[in-house]
Design a protein that fits this description.
It is built from 24 helices and 23 strands. With 661 residues, the chain is of the alpha+beta class. The strands form 6 sheets. Strands 12, 13, 14, 16, 17 and 19 form a 6-stranded antiparallel beta sheet that branches. The longest helix has 21 residues, at 2-22. The N and C termini lie far apart (60 Å).
Length: 661
Amino acid sequence: MIEKRIDELIKILNKASYEYYTLDNPTITDQEYDSYMDELIKLEVNHPELVRPDSPTVRIGGEVISDFKKVTHEVPMMSLGDIFNKDEIIAFDERIKKVVKNPEYVCELKIDGLSVSLLYKNGKLIRGATRGDGTVGEDITHNVKTIKNIPLSLPKDIDIEVRGEIYMPKYSFEKLNEERREKGEKEFANPRNAAAGSVRQLDSKISRERNLSTFMYHIPEPSKYDLKTQYESLEFMKDLTLTVNPNITKVNTLKDLLEYIDYWTIHRNELPYEIDGIVIKVNNYLDQKKLGVTAKVPKWAIAYKFPAEEVLTKLKDIEFCVGRTGKITPRADLDPVRLAGSVVRSATLNNQDYIKEKNIMIGDTVSIRKAGDVIPEVVQVKFDRRDGSEIPFKMISNCPICGTELIKKDGEVAYFCPNANCDARNIEGLIHFSSRDAMNIEGFGERIVEDFYNMGYLKSISDYYKLYQYKESLQELEGFGEKSINNLITNVENSKKNSLEKLIFGLGIKHVGKKTAKIISEYYKNLDNIINSSVEELSTIPDIGEIIANSIKDYFNNEKNIDLINRLKEYEVNMTFIEKEKNINELFMDKTFVLTGTLVNLTRNEAKDLIEAMGGKNTGSVSKKTDVVIVGNDPGSKYDDALKLGITTWTEEEFLNSIRR
């Protein structure tokens, strides 16, 4: 009797979940659902021997694993080649028509999430896995089971693998970031990053709270189920109660294909989830077989990536930020607007000349985009929307933090706060020192650095290395404890072992960026040699001109800076360049690389580090001397330059595969 009731409840609840999350057509109320769930939980608690693996109580989460086990995909999860404009779409169609007469295409929205493989045995979900490198992924079953539109059991007792995308809906993303803001935690940059971080939680309860969802789009071995086309596979998955995106269509002409792309380029922001392009697949499986695959991608499918997005919003005010060098940067305070996967509330205005050139006023409606898909910038003013209420821009004359009169040096467009003791300058300098590209002291985000500065624990760079003296006091601060403070102190200690270039960059010397810091550190080998060098000698080093050379000498001619260096020496911070053993790869050795667009699996800096580790060089612009351009999502003009010059381009996947060779 009890077992029968458990079966009934599971059937009712699983049906209700399918109707609510997949069909968007609920047939019972939330109150009824909760009542059935409470009853099932009580029965399972009293009769644990009757708990079924497809019970909806499994979704409650709570399973904690120690690490992620590796999973080998029997059929590799191949990536798709990327294209970025209509000319490339036309070229793709022409290539297909050389092999297939009158091809039919299936067009699918490219969901901006992460790939997942679901494995069912006898209709029961037994494994969820990430794509990984396409051959080996990670077992994330404990988290997959918490995703409410993934059925734990299918209506047919079949063995099947299906593949799709895990994503975070926009409303879930906004709610998550709102919660993180309230807790003073760093916000996620976009829904994709949030989703990726959620499925890689060891504690499934965290994943459940993130409210993830899925769309399924592929069956690796369709012939087992007598499926002849991609569209049939999508319908088959629907019949299995798996969620398939409703905006998929079949087209028979290039005209219809381009119209589909144009429509979703315009209307993508209306969707409750993020998409970053359109996937185009030849529909017929026999035709796919004729077309075949390369070593890396199928020839019968392609991913069209949307161009960089621009959106309109209101510029409410212009604020002024003080950088670590004292540079004053105007910043646009915007009405919040969603752009390229995240909510944007401000954008850089660079300097006074930039604002005057674009004739920007407070109250303007402006178009914004993400420069390099990272930093929001104002592109242009919509002059036709002005109504006379706009306020002209006026540059400030005093520092907004310390009140010191600003200065403007000859030959420079920016204004500076000359007060070396300006709180804003000091805080920005401390944040810069602990940042990843500098000393990489994990845990010291903006909020913590600012709090420690205001409390008197961090006033100078060298104070990082004295924090251990205040360990007991720091543990008593709200939001901290013994473990978190121990971690911060350990991270500080670990930073002492960094190579010299990390320290040089962290010092914040004007005009000395990450690349310059590496060049002079590699040339001089230790800090004392740099301190004792002359402007003339520095100027002879490749890529170090007179301006940079003078800036370096000015910094080390300052007694306060030498005192700082001596204190760092006392704390045993490394002052020498550490040679990294290069894993020479003939595809990289002595070749010049340029990165454009946003990478999915790596940060840009991580990619640059890998290129250098393989014996390659990084540059910021494309020229005839460039060997390879690595193309991420939403590439800029560098991609167009590469095509014009006939330079080799790699997708991110091709880049990673080249490293693994």
